[in-house]
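Is protoporphyrin IX containing FE placement plausible here? Inputs below.
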Amino acid sequence: MPGLGALLAFIQTPLGAVWLICTLVITWLGWYPLRRYAFRKFPGPFGLPFLGNLPQIAAMDTTAFLTSSAVKYGPVCKVWFGTRPWVLINDPELIRRHSFRWPARPANFASYFHVMTGENRAIDRAGVVLAEGEAWRRTRRVFEASIIHPASLAAHVPAMLRCLGRFTARLDRHAGSAQPLDVAAALGDLMLAAMGQIAYGVDFGCEEGADSSASNSSGVAGELVAALRDLFETMRMENATAYLPLQLMFPALEPLWLWAAHHMPDAKQTKAMRARSKVAEVSRLLMEQWQANKAAAVAAAASGGAGGADGGDRAGGFKEVGGGISSSSFMAAMMEGRRGAVEDRLSDIEVIGQGFTFLAAGYETTSAATSLALFLLATHPEAAARLAAEVDAVLGGGRELTAELLAEKLPYTEAVIKETLRLHPGITFLVREATEDVDLGAGRVVPRGSTLCMATHAVMHDPDIWPEPEAFRPERFLPEGSAGGGGSSSLWPTAGGNNPHVWAPFGMGTRMCVGHKLAMMASKATLVSLCQRFSFALHPKQPLPLKLKTGLTYGPADGVWMTVTRRG
Ligand code: HEM
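Reply from A.M.:
I modeled the complex. Tokens:
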């Protein structure tokens, strides 16, 4: 074989050796032959070297691509995020089992975030979303203590209603103007204001003014809204820094991408880092304000005077409202430990990390869900009429909205929100790391360390579970609409074939959304307050069909434009 002899001779030269090494390295990095072999039994779309399925993801949007792959390739398949395979699980029983079994988020998931975070990497890592082990348990307990327990949840209703009072006054001024309103942006202002009051007892000064522009917040609130918007925008694949696809394509070079993204940021990276720094700075200022108040209270007590939060304006700080921060609040739980348990007291960096998470999670997901509910009501007048009738019946005769009414007396309103979240869940898939080899049946064994991706959006659109899955039918979540009987529990409906694990917009298992009760309360209170006073119709400015996009969350791509009128 003269050709082989010449090749062997060539690779013994210095140039030939370099060529051989480069070829092996590129093959190894780009194709990962062993990895492809390990996943050979998993069906799925063909993945290009280096890029995997990134071109399809960019062209179709992540949610559309994952859902269509799950439908096409069955209950267990794989897709390639660059050079890494994600095992896509599209079977309710497997999703339930594995969401509960694996508490860890994939290590490479954190890498994707960290490319974008720059100097805020430590804060990102300390936040409950990416924290692991004991740090995760400790930080999660703080959220649980302040926004899941029924008593603490009920204590947040007055703050939500205060914000809604101001927000409906803003809409009332707007309703006379016949201008289109982007309700997604306006509700972002509202939810940020609510998160400020609920978590910190402060007024960010959101939702003032009365024009139709994207957001009416100014000052710190305006900067915070802009930062949060940039933060979510730069998490969308098409708006993200070029270092993100590089990280996905060449994960072995992660230290290089981290360094370069931090020291030689492109424009999108600069925007992402600036946005994250702003949110982190606000979280730090809130922590410092709390510390200063505490120190002042201690000093006042020592000198025999009154101290503590008094609801006033603080120089250079945020205005405190509703008596300032309460002892059962999120801030107090972070700073003093849950119910005073010193071992639960968070470090400064953890406090900033959780504050960051609270503001970001509370702002985007809940406002998107509520604006999508308004969109669906505007396009389904019979549902809007039924909701308005329920609200009128419950709040007739000038009755005030209360925590009890919200929890017990508004089943149709709750069904509207659940059906909105089924159709358009704010997060469309759950990711976990398999920390042991996992046998998924039919000879498909997922190697330890792999990423499991639970395709919850696909399950919530499965026609075998949800007849006519694209239809908006809140009745599915009421006893009258539960095919096969069942009714609905407060969170898990028994619609959808009586399987309690087929409705999962808040995820499930150990990493399930810790804000799910707060989100339901805030969305319900908002729908009730708005539909009591106003009617919403789509404005011609609203493109149809509605375009949704996946970034960190899944929501309206270009706002939700509506005309608001006062109800007669
Ligand atoms: C409609 C609104 C919301 C939706 C659809 C939503 C959805 C989700 C989903 C799907 C997850 C991942 C769950 C999993 O992996 O199993 C999650 C996690 C999380 N959510 Fe939410 N969420 C919403 C509102 C909120 C709010 C208001 C907060 C808090 C202020 C919040 C805080 C969190 C946190 C901290 C995590 C991470 C939990 C952990 O890793 O242990 N979410 N959310």
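Short version: The first strand starts at residue 76 and ends at 81.
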